[in-house]
Amino acid sequence: MDAQKLTRLRELAERDSLEAFEPGVKAVVRGHLERLASAPTFPALLDAPRRNDPGDLDNLECALIGVPFDLGVTNRPGARFGPSALRAIRFVGPWNHASRIVPFALCQIADVGDVPIPSMHDLEAGIAEIERYFERVARAGVTPISAGGDHSITYPILKALGRGEPLGLVHVDAHCDTEGASGGSRFHHGGPFRNAALDGALDPERSIQIGIRGMAELMTRFSQDSGMTVIHAEDFRRLGVAAVIDAARRVVGDGPTYISIDVDGIDPAYTPGTGTPEVGGLTPLDVQMLVRGLHGLHLVGGDVVEVAPAYDPTSNTAQVGAALLFEILCVVSDSVAQRRSTPTARAD
Question: Is 5 part of any domain?
């Protein structure tokens, strides 16, 4: 090889790979990478700083919260193990190569552990406990990003966050989850958005449901009658992600908005570890790009639900779930930072 070319290559190899970041952001990224390089100790969602007490919300702006609850399932159980499966996934983040967002440089963020649920034998009591916990989070002024759990957990979260003003919703799923009572209970995982709308916590006309398909078509009536926008999986493919992003932004507008992603919205080729898989879904990249497209909205929280790791020995479902949780954290932390008028942490 030419001597000058070889010298130039060696000079390039000596450059700091983090030089594109501002000094403060660089310190956060470097610290995160150093933690990843060390032996794992106490696993945390997205390798965030870990707090041992779920009641310890002091000096936090965003909290990563596990909700290990699956008493609302109607098919395969096991989503109660979703938070632990997502905590086992490392090397997600700490910066987003596409949006250039570094959430841990934008906000004070920690994994505060799991919602305390005293009994795993009482669906309604569990829903009430989850609501009480998220009311406390809301009173503390902390923005929650949660790992479920089945989709029934989203109802009490929305109820707690939407108590003062009804929320808009960007919802990725194979199913609309606006079904009425089933098996004598309305709190199952097929009805959280119906329940939230009927309680006044969710504005149906500011809600969009994306990826709908399969048997869910039998249960979309309330979504359509109440004014929710429903985009089927086939429509997503026909329209393309950019058009769906435009539709989502138009539907939710400038008001407070929540993001909820059920991993069964993604094709089971990628996320087989879930309770009610439906063939013909979105790809992980589809959903990543969709969430990135929500940047700049007034986002007040989000969740990834229905990861049931027992049905996926490859851990692919947890890998996808953790990646999507990170995408939500990126746009939500950026929204929180923008509301307090601080510069966006990006590697430009």
Answer: no
| Mean pLDDT value of segment 68-82 | 93
* pLDDT, tens digit, 9 for 90 and up, residues 292-325: 999 999 999 999 999 999 999 999 999 999 999 9
pTM of the model: 0.91
* 9 inside domain: no
Provide the residue type at 39 as one letter. A
Query: Sheet containing 167-172: which strands, arranged edge to edge?
Result: 109-114, 62-67, 143-148, 299-305, 257-262, 167-172, 202-212, 229-232
Q: Is 292 domain-assigned?
A: yes
Residue range of the domain that includes 109: 40-339
Model confidence at 24, pLDDT cuts 50, 70, 90, reads confident
| Residue 80, in any domain of the structure | yes
Three-state SS annotation for 109-153 = EEEEEECCCCCCCCHHHHHHHHHHHHHHHHHCCCEEEEEECCHHH
Q: Which residue has the tokens 């006044």?
A: 200
CA–CA separation, 83 and 114 (whole Å): 8
The alpha carbon dihedral of 174, 282, 289, 147 has a sign of: positive
What is residue 107's predicted lDDT score, i.e. its pLDDT? 96
Domain of 84, CATH number, reads 3.40.800.10
Total domains, the chain = 1
Q: Are 86 and 45 in contact (CB under 8 A)?
A: yes
